[in-house]
Amino acid sequence: MTPVSPTSRMTPAVRLRRILGSGVIAWVLLLGLVIGWGGSRRGVEGGGVYELSELPPIGDDSQSSEADLSGKLMLASQSRDLSNSSIRIGTFNIHSGKGRDEVFDLKRTANTIPRHLDIVFLQEVRSGLWGYSPDQAASLAQQLYMRSVFLPVEAQWFQPHFGNALLSRRHHDVIATLPLPCTQGKKYRGAMLTRFVVDNMPINLMGAHIDLRVDHDRQLDMVLSVFESLASPKVLIGDLNTTPDQTAMIAFLARTGCRNVFASEGHGRDWMIIDGLRVRESGIIDHGGSDHGLLWAELAVVNRPDKVASEEPGVLK
Questions:
Q1: Each residue of 202-254: pLDDT tens digit?
Q2: Beta-strand (E) ranges in 23-173?
Q3: End-to-end alpha-carbon separation of the chain, Å?
Q4: How many other CB atoms sit within 10 Å of the CB of residue 136?
Q5: 282: left (phi over 0), alpha (psi -120 to 50) or beta
Q6: H helix count then E strand count, the chain
Q7: Collapsing DSSP states into helix, strand and coil, what is residue 52?
Q8: Cα dihedral sign for 285, 289, 292, 298?
Q9: 49-50 and 42-43 as β-strands: parallel, antiparallel, unpaired?
Q10: Around Cβ 31, how many Cβ atoms within 10 Å?
Q11: How many Cβ atoms from other residues are within 10 Å of residue 37's Cβ?
C-alpha cells in the first residue's frame, strides 16, 4: 500500500493559505532587513567636493511682504558688493534647529544668525528626509538670502541626512569635505576645507565638528595637523568640543603662534583660530536658539610676507 503524504490530503484552500502564509513571512523578514539596514546610521565614506547653491530668487514668494522683498534686495546687494578689505565669519552648532528648550524652530535659528555675516559654518545640520522634513541648510539660506551647501557626514534611510553646512555670500573655488576617524559606528564627524579671497589674498578656511568623548583626541589631532599644513592666512572654526585648558590645544597654539579669537571669553567648546589675520570686531550671540552660541568675527589680512597663500585657483595649500 502506497503511503499518503500529509500534503496530499490538503485541500486546495489549505495549500493556498500555506503558500500565502509563507509569502507573508518572507515579505515581513525582507521588510525587517530593509528597515534595519535603512535605519542604521552609516558614515559617508571618503571626502567629496561640493558647490554652493545659486542665490534664491528674490520675488518667487507671493506671500512676501514689501518689507521682506526690500530686505532681500538689500542682502542681494551685499552679496554683489562685498568689502574687499575684510570678511565677517561665523560658526554655529544649530543643534538640528532645536533650542535649549528642545523646541524645533528653524526660524528662530535663522534669526540668531546676523545678516551682516559673509560666511557661516554650521554644525549638526539635517537634510530633508524624503520631503517629510526640511532641508535645513537650504531653508536657512532662503531666509538669510545666502548660498548654501550641505556637507553630509552621516547617512540614514538610504540618503545623506546629518552633517555640516556652509552659508556664504562669497565665491569659493573649492569646498571639500574630510571625514574624521570614527570607532563607534555612530556619532560620525567631519571637516570642511575651502578658500576665498580678501584684499586680493586667498584665505584658507577649515571648519570642523569633533566628537566630545571617545574619538575626540584622534579627531582633534587630525584637524590640527591638517590646519597646520595650510598656508597662511587661514581660519579654523567649529565645534571642536575642546576646552582651552586641554594639553593638545595649548601645545598647538604655542607651537604655531595661531590665535584663539575668543580666548578671553573662555566660551564653551566652540572655536575660531586665526593665523595671518587680525580681528576688527567680534561677538557672541546666544539667545537660546541652540545649545550653543554663535561666534562671529570681522577679520582683515595682516601683511606677513613670510607666509603667502598660493594664488593658483582651486588649490588649497
A1: 999 999 999 999 999 999 999 999 999 999 999 999 999 999 999 999 999 99
A2: 42-43, 49-50, 87-93, 119-126, 147-156, 159-168
A3: 89
A4: 23
A5: beta
A6: 6, 14
A7: coil
A8: negative
A9: unpaired
A10: 10
A11: 11
Relative orientation angle of helices 247-256 and 216-229, to the nearest 10 degrees = 10
pLDDT tens digits for range 61-101: 444 455 455 555 555 444 444 446 899 999 999 999 999 99
The three cell numbers of residue 136 are 535645513
- Of the candidates 209, 204, 141, the residue with the CA atom closest to the CA atom of residue 178: 209
d(CA 296, CA 91): 6
Pairwise CA distance, residues 175 & 193, whole Å: 6
The set of cell numbers assigned to 72 is 532681500
| Calpha distance 45→188 (Å, rounded) | 10
From the centroid of its chain, how far is CA 218?
20
CA distances from 119 to 107, 165, 284 (A): 19, 11, 15
Q: Name residue 24's beta-bridge partners.
A: none
All three cell numbers of 294: 554663535
Share of the chain above pLDDT 70, in %: 68
Q: For residue 156, what is the DSSP state?
A: E
Contact criterion met (CB below 8 Å) for 154 and 141: no
Cell of 60: 518667487
C-alpha cell, 148: 548654501
Strand 234-239, strand 201-209: pairing: parallel
Task: For residues 61 and 312, give the distance between their C-alpha atoms in angstroms, rounded to a whole number.
Answer: 40
CB count within 10 Å of CB 260 equals 18
Cell numbers describing residue 5: 503524504
Residue owning grid cell 579669537: 261
Distances (CA, A) of 3 to 6, 9, 10, 139, 151: 10, 11, 15, 72, 68
How long, in residues, is the chain? 317
* Element (DSSP H or E) covering residue 15: helix 12-39
**CA distance linking residue 33 with residue 36, whole number of Å:** 5
Q: How far is CA 302 from the centre of its chain?
A: 28
